[in-house]
């Protein structure tokens, strides 16, 4: 996949007041974080209900904690990829901009993105499953031993959304507002099958956004999208950022074509 992009996409990149980038596990794949579905996906080896649900945690909190400790280690050891950096470059160009992510790996923030709605939580945070008190892992604390809440002694859990749980209200409200404000909405590296997150691209399009999907494989969203860019996030997003930078710079030089 290489530029030139379609005329409509170029026009939106040039004129948009608000751009939203909605990301899933494919965004972090090139950083070395495994995706959930597809070849080598996490859910090929593990059953989500055995590891990513309150029921699983109540049944065996140590096992669930160890699994997330392992994932925290994997995610902490990797770095943002050129796709994440391109999203930061895009944020600098538009007065309205948001990242909405289903990822818990913190890579958008580590790359430098400022407005990030984390729909499924963040693996770097923890809280007590009993009283809700946030829990900060100590520097020397063995990462794979289930911590107990210092306030009430309850089991500590990762601050991530499990199956059957509702999304954090503020993050969801911010995400919906961003989706509805968007002139351009990029859906990147998500299989678009987990709701309510997967409803955002459609919501954005209904509200007038030009919907572009970036993924090496088609998804249920592909038919709905205005445009499907087949390829990897780490390759396509830098190209988009480069084109957008050129377009916005020339718009600024000429004083904008809406004057
Ligand atoms: P999935 O694992 O379901 O989908 C990853 C998508 O990324 C697939 O469509 C791949 O084709 C695509 N992909 C792979 N490599 C890519 C690359 N380099 N560039 C772009 N795309 C690439 O991940 P999500 O859609 O994020 O929820 O999954 C949604 C939710 O399901 C997750 O947040 C998690 C999971 O269960 C919870 O934990 C609540």
Can you characterise this structure?
There is one protein chain. The chain is of the alpha/beta class and 259 residues long. It has 2 domains: 7-33 and 79-120 and 166-253, TPP-binding domain (Rossmann fold, 3-Layer(aba) Sandwich), CATH 3.40.50.1220; 34-77 and 122-160, SIR2/SIRT2 'Small Domain', CATH 3.30.1600.10. It is built from 11 helices and 9 strands. The chain has helices at residues 7-15, 26-29, 42-45, 48-51, 54-59, 61-77, 82-91, 107-111, 169-181, 200-206, 233-253; strands at 18-23, 96-101, 116-118, 121-128, 134-135, 156-160, 184-188, 210-215, 227-230. The strands form 2 sheets. The protein has a 6-stranded parallel beta sheet, sandwiched between helices. The chain has a 3-stranded antiparallel beta sheet with strand order 5-4-6, with helices on one face. Helix 8 links the parallel strand 2 (96-101) and strand 3 (116-118). The longest helix is centred in the last third of the chain and has 21 residues, at 233-253. The radius of gyration is 19 Å and the shape is elongated. The model has no long low-confidence stretch (mean pLDDT 94).
């Amino acid at each position: 996949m290489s530029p030139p992009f379609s005329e409509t996409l170029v026009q939106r990149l040039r004129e948009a007041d608000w751009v939203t980038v909605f990301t899933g596990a494919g965004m972090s794949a090139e950083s070395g974080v495994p995706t959930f579905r597809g070849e080598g996906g996490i859910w090929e080896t593990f059953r989500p209900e055995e590891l990513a649900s309150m029921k699983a945690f109540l049944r065996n909190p140590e096992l669930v904690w160890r699994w997330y400790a392992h994932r925290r280690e994997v995610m902490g050891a990797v770095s943002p990829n050129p796709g994440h950096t391109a999203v930061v470059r895009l944020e600098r160009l538009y007065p309205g901009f948001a990242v909405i992510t289903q990822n818990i790996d913190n890579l958008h923030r580590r790359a430098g993105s400022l407005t990030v709605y984390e729909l499924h939580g963040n693996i770097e945070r923890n809280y007590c499953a009993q009283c809700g008190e946030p829990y900060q892992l100590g520097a020397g604390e063995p990462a794979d031993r289930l911590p107990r809440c210092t306030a009430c002694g309850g089991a500590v859990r990762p601050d991530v959304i499990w199956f059957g749980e509702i999304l954090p209200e503020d993050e969801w409200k911010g995400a919906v507002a961003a989706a509805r404000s968007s002139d351009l909405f990029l859906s990147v590296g998500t299989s678009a099958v987990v709701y309510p997150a997967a409803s955002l691209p459609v919501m954005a399009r209904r509200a007038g956004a030009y919907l572009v999907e970036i993924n090496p494989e088609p998804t249920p969203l592909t038919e709905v999208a205005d445009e499907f860019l087949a390829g990897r996030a780490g390759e396509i997003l830098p190209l988009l950022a480069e084109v957008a930078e050129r377009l916005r710079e020339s718009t600024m030089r000429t004083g904008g074509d809406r004057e």
